[in-house]
Write a structure and sequence with these properties.
heterodimer, A: 296 residues, mainly alpha, 74% helix, elongated, B: 328 residues, globular
């Protein structure tokens, strides 16, 4: 009896983050995860292998082929300059997915650092959190619009702008999780037994903040794809001739009634990418957040 | 009896203390917002005066902009002047509109407000209803249908569905005008037909967001002991859900309203552009493209301050609605 009891204590203490293997197996039994995973993997492969999937150049203009409707030689049709929409959507995937990935990774990193610092060092808590409150007071898209416009229309500006807009939510999530973990018995025990602050942060606090942050960042990925498209659509994001899903729609908008295919396909691509990430986020939350299991 | 009164009194005192604390917390936030908006200009790569005046501007024109914006003064002095002006309610002036930021925003407020208010008015009942429906009939085809709709709502870009909406409802069916705004003073009918389509498109994301949030809040509440008690003591399902479950979930939904307002205003920036509605969002986009940075800064500030206020109101309502917060 005592042995089993001890083992239970030791194993819960040693395995603070959920056992990875089991979580991954549960994820792949989750329908939302499988659908989202397939969508994202297909889009990512299409982006990476774009040059192998299409022989055409995304910015090559062939005026005699302008406004061809979708047919066998141009499966998504062509735009007003005779550029192939299928090719542009494939290359646009590179920009959109890269922006989404960069924004979620960078804002996740900043969120983790600032959130843990705010939770661990009481003196820095108020300044950090009031700064985050201030950033969160601007509607995210408006803040990103202002920053992207000031930094100039480039992919890196869009990434910087969206990162600033989405960091505050990540900081709040990590701080909230870190404040809970800090008070857990085994973390207190570690502190009393003389573990350094850094060791406690790295060994105990960060692993426990990982799940909520990962779930959050999956949704941020989806938001970032939508926001990048909106910024590029408004003309302050990725600039033509570099193809981005948002600016293809902006270019196709004037001809939307006659050449509907120019704006239709990039819109479907954005929706699929955002849908895929949202599905992954839902599934990760179901599997990683045990609190929400009780409902179902 | 007396102790009951005393408890109530101390509860109210605690409530007042929490509200006062929230107000105090808002002061530094407002100050930081003001400084952040000021710093926006220093993000510009290179000399702001040249960028605002344009690459081809004459040296005199650049010098004029520099003096007009006070860019020739030391940095800290500029910041001090900026904050002093704000303290006097001066949000600066637009460079191209020949107007103060406040009057430019005020003039366009009815458009953006119509859009946001109508969209929220549709979103809250529909979102809460769909979310509750999905939670109540969880893991049925109703749940699957509602959640698929909600998922599409938060995944499909609004500006894209807006263009498709214009093609279908304005160009093909001719039900609503494809662009422009009619003030409500010219009749409710024309006003409604000028904002109903953009407002509904704005609602798609919001309904999706709120339905997802309501569903998980309801599932959380429905699994709790007091729901089992309510059922066990023989309350009808309707009363259990409406009185006990929904009431508790509403506390979470109050919090969502702040986020909804923020996304409605953010979404209107893009939607106003597609429908050519002369609102604040469209003005900001045009200001950005025309490098009218003082107008951008001033407008962002006004939005920032507005949302500090909205969040404060949400916080107070939340404290009022949830007695547990007071006794913490």
């Amino acid at each position: 009896m005592t042995d089993i009891g001890l083992e239970a204590i030791v194993s819960t203490a040693g395995l603070a983050p959920p056992r990875r293997g089991r979580s991954i197996r549960r994820l792949f039994r989750h329908r939302s995860f499988v659908i989202g995973f397939v969508i994202i993997v297909v889009l990512a492969l299409a982006a990476i292998f774009a040059p192998l999937l299409t022989p055409l150049d995304p910015s090559a203009m062939k005026v005699r082929f302008r406004f061809r409707s979708p047919a066998s030689d141009f499966i998504f049709g062509t735009d007003m300059f005779g550029r192939d929409i299928f090719t542009r959507v494939l290359y646009g995937a590179r920009v959109s997915l890269f922006v989404g990935l960069a924004v979620s990774v960078i804002s996740g990193f900043c969120g983790a650092v600032l959130g843990v610092v705010a939770a661990q060092f009481r003196k820095l808590d108020a300044p950090i959190m009031r700064l985050m409150d201030a950033l969160m007071s601007f509607p995210a898209i408006l803040l990103a619009l202002g920053i992207a416009a000031a930094l100039g229309p480039r992919v890196s500006s869009v990434i910087a702008a969206l990162t600033v807009a989405y960091v505050p939510a990540g900081v709040r999530i990590v701080r909230a999780a870190a404040l809970v973990v800090r008070e857990l018995d085994y973390v207190q025990a570690a502190r009393l037994s003389g573990a350094s602050a850094l060791r406690i942060i790295v060994r105990h606090i960060l692993p426990n903040c990982f799940s909520p942050l990962l779930v959050h960042l999956t949704f941020i990925f989806a938001y970032a794809i939508l926001a990048e498209a909106a910024l590029s659509f408004l003309g302050v994001g990725v600039q033509p001739p570099l193809a981005s899903w948002g600016n293809i729609i902006a270019e196709g908008r004037d001809y939307a009634t006659e050449a509907w295919w120019v704006m239709l396909f990039p819109g479907i691509a954005i929706s699929l990418a955002a849908l895929g990430m949202n599905l992954l986020g839902d599934a990760l939350r179901d599997v990683l957040d045990p609190r929400l299991k009780g409902g179902d | 009896m007396r102790s009951e009164n005393q408890r109530r009194l101390s509860g109210e005192l605690a409530l007042l203390r929490i509200i006062a604390f929230k107000f105090l917390q808002a002061v530094p936030v407002i100050l930081i917002i003001s400084i952040l908006a000021f710093l926006l200009l220093s993000l510009l790569p290179g000399d702001p005066a040249i960028i605002i005046a344009g690459e081809q501007a004459s040296p005199e024109a650049v010098e004029h902009v520099r003096q007009q914006l006070g860019l020739d003064r030391p940095f800290l002095q500029q910041l001090a002047i900026w904050l002093l002006n704000l303290a006097q309610g001066n949000f600066g002036s637009s460079l191209i509109l020949n107007q103060s930021v406040l009057s430019a925003v005020g003039e366009r407020l009815p458009v953006t407000l119509s859009l946001a208010a109508l969209s929220i008015a549709v979103t809250i009942p529909v979102g809460v209803f769909l979310g509750s429906l999905a939670a109540y009939y969880r893991q049925s085809w109703i749940d699957a249908g509602v959640m698929t709709f909600a998922l599409l709502g938060v995944s499909i870009p609004a500006f894209w569905i807006a263009i498709l909406g214009i093609i279908l409802f304005s160009v093909h069916l001719g039900w609503v005008p494809s662009s422009g705004f009619t003030p409500i003073s010219q009749g409710v009918g024309p006003w409604l037909s000028s904002v109903i389509l953009p407002a509904l498109i704005l609602s798609l994301f919001q309904i999706g967001f709120l339905a997802r949030m309501t569903r998980s809040a309801m599932l959380d509440v429905m699994g709790q002991d007091f729901i089992r008690t309510a059922r066990a003591k023989g309350l009808s399902e309707w009363r259990t859900v409406s009185k006990h479950a929904l009431r508790n979930a509403l506390i979470l939904i109050i919090t969502a309203t702040g986020i909804l307002l923020s996304t409605a205003i953010g979404g209107s920036v893009v939607i106003e552009q597609v429908f050519a509605l002369p609102g604040i969002g469209r003005m900001v986009v045009q200001a950005i493209l025309a490098r009218d940075y003082p107008l951008v800064q001033g407008t962002m500030l006004i939005f920032g301050f507005t949302f500090v206020l909205i969040n404060l109101i949400v916080d107070v309502l939340y404290t009022l609605a949830d007695p547990r917060v007071r006794h913490d």
